[in-house]
Each structure stands twice: as C-alpha cells, then as structure tokens.
C-alpha cells in the first residue's frame, strides 16, 4: 500500500511505482467509504480489445444467454 498527500494547491502525486504500473491518467470515483482512482488507458478501444481478445462467445450469444436466464428466473 502506498500513501500520498495533497500539496498546498490540492495536487496529489501518485508514487512512481504505481504510475509505471497503471499510467498517468485516472478517473476519480467516489465510493461509499472514500474515493477510488481508476486508470484510464491511452486508447480505451485498444484496452477493451485486449481485455476481450480471449472471449469465447460473441456479444449476441452472451445477450441470448442473458435473455434466456432472465426468462427462466421470471418463471416464463
């Protein structure tokens, strides 16, 4: 775990090892007990392609499975 403080202008410095691992851009998300920094990829579409490159099912197949599961849960 790392620690960071704000300077007198409200800026926070992210430790070097975290910047090297996650990059230089973040979204700040407010959660129930504080805030969370979410790394933002330089090219979000490339990041999505990489994330789902190994997906075995198409979006249509996943959508149909979700639809069937919702019908089953609702008791058809």
Task: Describe, in plain words, how this protein is organized in 3D.
The chain has two domains: 1-40, Pemi-like Protein 1, Chain: D (Ribbon); 42-76, no CATH class. The chain has a two-stranded antiparallel ribbon with strand order 1-2. The chain is 41% helix and 16% strand. A hairpin with a 2-residue loop joins strand 1 and strand 2 (34-39). The protein is of the alpha+beta class and 76 residues long. The mean pLDDT is 88. The longest helix is centred in the last third of the chain and has 16 residues, at 59-74. Residues 4-45 form the SpoVT-AbrB domain. Keywords: Coiled coil.
Largest sheet: 2 strands, antiparallel
Morphology call: elongated
Query: From N to C, what is the helix and strand string?
Result: HEEHH
Spatial sequence of strands, sheet with the most strands: 1-2
Question: What is CATH's topology name of the largest domain?
Answer: Pemi-like Protein 1, Chain: D
**Number of extended strands:** 2
Distance between the termini: 49 Å
SS field, number of helical segments:
3
What is the averaged pLDDT score?
A: 88
Which structural class do you get from the secondary structure elements? alpha+beta
Radius of gyration: 20 Å
Q: What is the CATH class of the largest domain?
A: Mainly Beta
Domain SpoVT-AbrB: 4-45
GO molecular function, one term: DNA binding
Keywords: Coiled coil
Organism: Halorubrum californiense DSM 19288
């Amino acid at each position: 775990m790392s620690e960071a403080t704000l300077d007198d202008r409200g800026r926070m410095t992210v430790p070097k090892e975290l910047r090297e691992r996650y990059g230089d851009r973040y979204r700040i998300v407010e959660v129930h007990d504080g805030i969370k920094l979410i790394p933002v990829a330089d090219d979000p579409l490339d990041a999505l392609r990489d994330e789902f490159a190994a997906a075995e099912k198409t979006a249509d197949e996943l959508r149909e499975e979700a639809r069937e599961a919702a019908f089953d849960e609702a008791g058809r």
